[in-house]
């Protein structure tokens, strides 16, 4: 396999399929022990959608906050 004029290479299809690398997949490059390593980039975690989900359940159990609940669970 050769590197093209613009620094591009083609990842073989069996590798793209095996690792789920579609046309818009993001990858990372790094150097390890003198070799170039290509790794599929992790998707960012969007935790905002979970914010406040436990509020009613905690209130029903008598807690005013997650911190209060965690202190109770940890035995503080």
How would you portray this structure in words?
- The chain is of the alpha+beta class.
- The chain has helices at residues 13-19, 55-60, 66-74, and strands at residues 27-32, 35-40.
- It has two domains: 1-44, Pemi-like Protein 1, Chain: D; 45-76, no CATH class.
- The chain is 29% helix and 16% strand.
- It has a two-stranded antiparallel ribbon.
Quick structural gist:
This protein has 76 residues and is α+β, with helices and mostly antiparallel strands. The chain has three helices and two strands; from the N terminus they run H-E-E-H-H. The protein starts with 12 loop residues before the first helix and ends with a helix.
Q: Which features would summarize this protein structure in a list?
A:
2 domains; alpha+beta; 16% strand; 76 residues; Pemi-like Protein 1, Chain: D; 29% helix
């Amino acid at each position: 396999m050769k590197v093209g004029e613009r620094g591009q290479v083609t990842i073989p299809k069996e590798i793209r399929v095996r690792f789920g690398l579609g046309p818009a997949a993001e990858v990372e490059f790094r150097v390890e022990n003198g070799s170039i390593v290509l790794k599929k980039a992790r998707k960012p975690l969007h935790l905002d959608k979970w914010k406040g989900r436990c509020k009613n359940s905690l209130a029903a159990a008598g807690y005013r906050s997650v911190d209060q609940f965690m202190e109770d669970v940890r035995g503080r």
